[in-house]
What we know:
Strand content: 35-45%
Number of strands: 30
Distance between the termini: 36 Å
Shape: rod-shaped
Amino acid sequence: MxxxxxxxxxxxxxxxxxxxxxxxxxxxxxxxxxTTDANLTTFVAPGDTLExxxxxxxxxxxxxxxxxxxxxTLVVRVSTPNLGAAVxxxxxxxxxxxxxxxxxxxxxxxxxxxxxxxxxxxxxxDLTVEQLVVHRxxxxxxxxxxDTGRLRATDDTNGNGLADDGPGTAITPVRVFEFEFTHDxxxxxxxxxxxxxxxxxxxxxxxxxxxxPLPDQRLVGRTPLAPGTTLTISLDGVxxxxxxxxxxxxxxxxxxxxxxxxxxxxxxEGVPLAVTATSDGQRLGEMRGxxxxxxxxxxxxxxxxxxxxxxxxxxxxxxxxxxVVRNGPDGSIVATRYVAAxxxxxxxIQYRRAVTADxxxxxxxxxxDGDRLFEADDPDRPFRRDGEPVSxxxxxxxxxxxxxxxxxxxxxxxxxxxxxxxxxxxxxxxxGTPTRTRLTDASGDGFGPGVALAAxxxxxxxxxxxx
Length: 467
């Protein structure tokens, strides 16, 4: 009788299969018939390729994988020495009929028994069902093609690895089955996890589903579906007249992804979102998210406003952007600084041109195209609150105007003096709703040590997930 597994072993197998790590020969004891001359390998393909695979008109859609979604096509490839001759000797007009006849004999068996940890009998899949189609792909190698969603399982009460008589019931994921093919005294086995046809979305770098009314908004979907599966992704404003629909294709070998890049420049702000995915008319689920507002806020330190720099406190930007300083309300630009999305205790902007007015105007702009180059006319635009730009006037100390640098240069991100915590600010005149992670004492272009460390961790994790 096939040995059972503990609950811990079952969980570990599930995690390994979900993560894309194969679990070959998952039996906890070695079977005496296990040899290297036999092979059993599972492949998956998009569900809409089932008929083409059965007809033998396609063959390049298979992905070797030890997990399958219910909407996928499952292909079980088996081979043993002299298997081709044994199939040819069976009665029947087609390869499928002859292979099924071989499976009904005493020397060949194909089983799939659920890995369980309970006290009841394990369940077994009937792999000789009428839907089975078999193709010969080598001298002794055959592909067995199944519609995964139509597979049925029944109790294996006698422990022989075969499904008991009866109609069986649909497989409810998540389940793991051990497949074994035995022919003429040799055998091969492998585990297969069966997962629901589903998808979950996120918007990097966060785990939630937050998009902004900007171009190149990334939507990442993780799914167990077979690579090559076509999905239709819909974004709908909940209670708002906003809708976007795009088609995408599942990619990846060990891990499957469905990625979208959306231009949401003209989308409304502050709108709840419902994101749904469908495949071949089947709805794979819905997630709720938000088209977030582009918000910014900052407070000038009026006691520290010389004509060479301006210092700001409590800076918060919901998306990467610029702090732009002008020489008076209608004057020319004297400084810009790129600031990554986040919250900062203090930021200093060094002037790059002479300040001749009695005040400077600081305005927060959205880096719409994400190139970190300030473009005032198009496409970069001011952050707004209640329809007005997030901006404030900073009165300057009375002193002789100076030019801090004699170099001629294009306005770029300025390197500030050392940023430090300051005393309590005066009443702010620029406001916004702070979001994102707090980054204290930022320097340079707004990236502090914390961001560098986070980027390193994310990079290492990405490398670890690569195929």
